[in-house]
Amino acid sequence: MKRDVHKIETVQLRFTKRLNGLYNLLYSCRLTCLGLDSLYCKRVKSDLIMCYKVLHNMDSIDCNALFQRSQVSHTRGSSMKHHVSSRRDGHFFANRVVNIWNSLPDHTVAFHSVACFKLKLSKFHFNE
Fold it and tell me: How many C-beta neighbours within 10 Å does residue 108 have?
């Protein structure tokens, strides 16, 4: 699956290189100039938004079927730590998102609306 994402990313890489005045810039600089995220970063942000909706019961998916709330009271990062119920498939949504979710600070995950969460999340840049 990682190879497929890389192939699609190369399409965006070539396209941005053809834009006027951006040919000599690095890919990351072109994305910054255009206000774009890499495809990997977009996927992570989409996963985190979906995770937020699931954990806050804003979706019809049962949170307990995907995640188990951490019993540890003293945690680094978010106080809303979760563990994956099943680790069968490494590409499964919960497996992809749980470590990134747990690394987010409290002031990011504690919002009461999706719009506020998205706004805070837009300031993050996730790298592979």
Answer: 19
Instruction: Say if residues 33 and 25 touch (Cβ distance below 8 Å).
Output: yes
CB atoms within 10 A of CB 82: 20
Q: Could you report the per-residue pLDDT of 25-69, keeping only the tens digit for each?
A: 999 899 989 988 888 889 889 999 988 888 888 877 777 667 767
The model's pTM is 0.73
Q: Residues 3-29: pLDDT tens digits?
A: 777 888 899 899 999 999 999 999 989
Q: Per-residue DSSP letters for 13-68?
A: HHHHHTSTT-TTS-HHHHHHHHT---HHHHHHHHHHHHHHHHHTT-SSS-HHHHEE
Domain boundaries, the chain: 1-36, 38-128
Tokens linked to 104: 């987010």
